[in-house]
What we know:
Rhomboid-like fold; mainly alpha; 9 helices
Amino acid sequence: MTRAPVTFGLIGATLLVFLTQTLSQSVLGFDLVTLLGAKDNVAIAAGQVWRLITPVFIHGGYFHLFINLYSLYAIGPAVERFFGPWRILSLYLLSGIAGVLLSMIFSSYRSVGSSGAIFGLLGSLGAFLYVNRSTFGQAGAIQLRQIVMVALINLGLGLSPGIDNWGHLGGLIFGTSLTWFTGPNFAVVRDETADRFILVDRRPWCLVWPKVLLGAVVVALLVLAALLIPPRY
Length: 233
């Protein structure tokens, strides 16, 4: 867990929110968390902008929760290992918001779930492997093909009724784009002191965080633009 604190922190936060959903259902007879936090176009247009991020932590049932948390558990540690805690946290939250935004623009349905954020991590991992294809060689190319296949399959499954594919696509596009410009770019360097080869990131967090901040500003501007568009009913 200590090697992926952000991933397991996000899992813990999502579980806590789901526990609150379950308790409110038991005590009040309805899911207060979903009522106040789901993606709802009319509510967002009315000024409830917190609904652009809260849906990422809300789920519609045990199966929905399991699928998304298992996906986060499977992808998150690999991304966090190479990206570090700040980059993966930025990717997850901003991709989630981007997914809600695209869903808000093209879909009138209420929705919840962390799928958009997870698709953002999936896209980021794909972009990372492509940018570093010369470093990771054939093994990286195989993983990249598998990631592309997983993304296509899941987007295809997202065409089923009740699945917010716009949210998936928004997260995927944003996560891929942000990683293309701010993701780690490794080089194999010989460490003379230890007489071994090591990976050195040519785009460390200390150099790219302004670009990530710019990405957050772009998302904020898109939020403002989306609020000016009449909501889809």
